[in-house]
Amino acid sequence: MDEKQLMWGALGSLLVILSVGIVSIVNMVVLLVIGILTSFLVFILTIFAYSKVNQDPLCSRLKKNSLKEQLKLRSQKPIRTFPILTGSSAIDKPLQDMISYIIRDYILAWHKKITLNTSFPDEVRAILSQTVTILTERISLVDWVPYLTTQLVDHVASHVRLFKSARNKYKSPLKDGEARPADLETIFFDCEVEMEGEICRDQVCLDQEGETQYFQELCEMLLYLILPGQEFGAGSVRCLVREILAHSLIQPSLNSLSDPDFVNQTLVWLYSEYYIRNEVFVATLRHTDNMGELEASRELVTKEVTRLRSCDSV
After folding, report:
1. Structural contact between residues 209 and 215, judged by C-beta atoms closer than 8 angstroms
2. C-alpha distances in angstroms, 120 versus 86, 115, 220, 282?
3. pTM, whole model, 2 decimals?
């Protein structure tokens, strides 16, 4: 009887192997083992989640805090202390407010949806504070008096002189056999090469890719000077901050500063309370050669004269 059972068992096993396959049997065994291990882990985690740990001290010399003291310790929030940035409280307070607004608008807006842990925002605040401190130290080393009174004035005067030269050349009549570019930008940069020698910034000013690359290199140099060494050594942090500064700060700011409408509105706002003397106004009209400006000035003067006459009649 035992031999028959063994034979029938061997025959059944052989049929199962032939019909299902060895690979399928191995897969079934693996899945069974994985199911048993998963059930065991779920059982262990359930016990850990719903169990209570005895927190009574094992040493009689340790004093256990009462329930009121534990609630008081939990309710106490750590006092946030801000580092000294510039050494002046009148300047540090607005700078700290700006850093808080930056963290609130650009970090906490998405970070609080992921986790309530404040380690990352606090680290960003510390990095920004340290960056501002380094920037303050760098600024204090600059001799501003000769730069503002000599170097900056020379650069601005040289640029204005170069622009006037290019504009005069653009408006002057062509001579016999003279070839001249049709646009003012090309004439300007040709004059720049003649004045500066080997320096020409046409690729930076006229090419979008060249401008972006120049801003990236500029931000890379600025980060080397003001960013802490540990953060600058991290390639991902350096590239991220470089792209943010180049595309979200420097490039939009320069686009706004070079917008004629923005420049005109700023000048109007600056001179809104400034009284222009008659001599200055007449001298400006005499030296200008723009017919559009002259016609606009005449219309404004006519309106002002009409308004004054109407007031006199009343």
Report:
1. no
2. 24, 10, 23, 61
3. 0.56
Q: Each residue of 201-248: pLDDT tens digit?
A: 888 888 888 888 888 888 888 888 888 888 888 888 888 888 888 888
Residue 108: CB atoms within 10 A of its CB come to: 16
Could you tell me the CA-to-CA distances from 48 to 36, 39, 52, 89, 203 in Å, in that order?
A: 19, 14, 8, 51, 66
CA 247 vs CA 125, 176, 213: distances in Å: 22, 47, 11
Residues 6 or more apart whose CB falls under 8 angstroms from that of 174 comprise 180
In eight-state DSSP terms, residue 55 is: -
Residues 231, 126 contacting (CB under 8 angstroms): no
- Using alpha carbons, list the distances in angstroms from residue 138 to 134, 165, 243: 6, 37, 23
Residue 38, CB-side half-sphere exposure with 13 Å CA sphere: 6
Q: What's the one-letter identity of residue 139?
A: I
